[in-house]
Each structure stands twice: as structure tokens, then as C-alpha cells.
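Researcher: Let's try something more involved. This one mixes different molecule types, so please make sure each is placed in the same coordinate frame as the others.
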Amino acid sequence: MSRPWRDEVAIYLAPRRLALVRRGGLRRRVLAAAEVPVPAGPAADLGPLFTRLGEVLADSTWHRASVRAVVADHPWARYVVVPWLDSRLGASARLAHARYLLGDTYGDAVADWAVTLSEAPPGRSCVACAMPPGLRSSLEDALAPAELALLSLRPRLVVAFNAWRRHLPANDAWFVSLDDGSLSAVHLRQGAWDRVHMARLSPDWALELERLQAFARLTRDAKGSGRMFVDGPAWMRRKVGGSNGLEWLTEGEGDEEPGTPGGELALLRRVNA
Amino acid sequence: MTGRARPVRLDFVAPVHGAPLAGAVLLALGLAATVVLGLAFEGALTERGRLDAALGAKAPPRQSAPTPEALKRAAESAAVERELAVPWTRLLAELEGAARDSATSVALLQVEPDAAKQLVRITAEVRALPDALAYLKRLQKSAVLAHPMLESHERRKDDPEHPLRIKLSAEWHT
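Model: All components are placed in one shared frame. Result:
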């Protein structure tokens, strides 16, 4: 658990950019913020990202704090919804079950990825997420020289969903998180995820928005409204305006999860700006 | 809308069931209360020890087995106390009064009290035995004496008048 008096640095890790926000003091004010491009490298290659992160963290502005890291969904996070099984499974068996579902959905590419499961009460499905095996250790190696302690490592979709969840209907609604060239979409039923989809986007945003709207129409239940809530970059929101049946989650509405430092939300807002 | 979407608690580093800040605060408060109570208890113990010590200084020493010297002193004290308790004035007044009231003269020779037994021994001389009996009857009416008895009598042949020497005993009332 984080020491309440210690500064926290939220770091957003994406293939083409890094974003950092430092918060501190009793009121957790923003003390420093930065967005840094990452030199282009091979897709999903962690090397350029962590090389650049190490350069940024050489600045004492970021030293000696707790770190909450957020990882871009594409290409470093994969999700599946793991249904509840009536048979009583131990933790390792539930993890094996989640690995099987991930392999079934994404193939052998995720076979050696690190997997973690969300907390869920008995009888309810949970969410499994996979990340590349070397991501956490590479991140910790980059943080160590700056005396930064890794406190949390979560994928973007989870952080964004938790930030906006109070504004989402519990039933038959889509939450879509748009990032640099990728889309992650979650369908809600009885307040929980029951479907999750990920897709890469083309540079043609107008085309992608049309596809998104078509997706919403196709997946809409006969009984429900099928509302689609979008968390995306501000420039895209401005470009689209208020039309087309999409409900844009606008800055200033998002809640900070109780117990979750606001640094991550501020970070995502900054990323989305 | 039926309720709200539930949060997804998923993290690759932090435990899912991580203790919230409120828990840490409660823990800290509990520890602080324990320390405060411990200090208060320590203070109460110290105060009790101090009061015990003060009470011990004022309390009489505990009784131990009496030494022979102490027993002797106690016996002497009791004897003195008994001697002091003998009602000499009333006793002598009663004996002399009885002697005067008798028809014949009674000469009191010796009055020897035994304080331990509350007994007085009287030695006197009379002319004849009836005189001794009359004196005894008079003593039996006394409010100070109880159970007067004639213990012995003896004719004094060495005396020219041949008086009768008698010895009596009586208990006295305190």
C-alpha cells in the first residue's frame, strides 16, 4: 500500500509515447507533467519504450515516489471474460482456465504472457488480462535508478472504465475506449463485463467512426437501448460533434475511483487531450 | 438504469484485496489507543505501588511469634495491671467495718490479697470461736466480698490471754 504522504507518479506507457504526471502534497496537486514521444521501433517491441523512459526518469523531477503505471491496450494488453464455473476451482485452476480462454481467443502469441484475474464474487464472471512477460520486470528495471517503487500496473481499459463507470448504465451498454490506433470495447450486463473486444484502427478516423456506429447498431439487443459511451481523444470528439448516436464521455465528468489516486485519470485526460 | 457498473479490480502488482487507506487509519488509531491504554495502565500500576508503599509505612508491624522476653514482659504487665485493679480502699473499709460491727473485738493482723485469683486472705485474732463465727457471718453480708470461709483457727498458747488466731479467705467483687 502506498504511503499517503509520498508523492505518486502516474506513467502511461504506449508504443509511440510516454506520459507522466507527478502528484504530491496533502491535496495531491499536480507537481509536474510531461508527454514524451518514443522513437518508432518494431511493433510491440518494449526496448525503445523503456530506453526512452530511462532517459526521462534521469531528471530528478520524477525521483523518489510511488509509481502507478498504465499500459496501452494495444499492443500490450489482452482481455477475456472468464465465466463462473460451478465446480469449485482453486486459484491456480482458475488461472489455468483463464489462460485457456486467452489462448483460445488470441492464439499462441499470449501463451507465455503474464495473466491476472479481477476480483469477483462467487457465481459471477471475472475479467482476465494478459501482458507481455517482460513488461513488468523491464519497467521495474527502468524505475529502480530513480528510486521509484512500482505500486500498481494496470491496463488502460480497466483504468478508463473504473474512471467512468459511475456514468454508465449497468445493463446493455457499451463502453468504448479509443487510443492511438486501437479500440477496446466492453459490454455491460448486470453491472459487469460480459463481452470485451479489441480492434486496431486505421488512420482514417471518419471511417472508423462509421464502423463504430455500425458496430453499435449490430450489437444492440432487441429489448435494450444499446447505448454506446465513448472515451476518446478530445480532438476526435470535437470533430464528430454531438451527432451519430455515440455518447462521448467528456472531461470533467469522470470520477476518480475511491482509493485510486487521481493521477491515473489525470494522466488519461492528458493523453486524450 | 438498474444500478451502476461495478469496478474492475485488476492489477499486475497490487494485491486485489489491498487494504484501503481507511483500514490503515483504523489500524493506526487502534495501535495509538493501545499505546495510550498501556501508558495509563502503567501509570495506574505505579500509583498503586506508591500508595501501597505509603500505606505500608503507616500500618502496624505484622505480628510475629512472641519471644520469651516479650512473654515475660507481657506477664509482668498483666500482673501489674491486676495489682492495680485490686479495690484496696473498698476492701479495707469493708474488713475494718466488719471488725467494728462485731460484738466482740476482732484484731486484724494481716490482709493478703491474691490478685490473680481475686482472693483475699485475712488473719485475725479473737477471744473465742463464737467471735470468729460472728465475724464470718458479718463478712458474708458484705457486698464487696463473696464466699467468705473460715480456713483455720489456732489457740495461741504463747500469748498470756490465749487468743484464738483465725485465718479466713474471701473472693472480692470488682
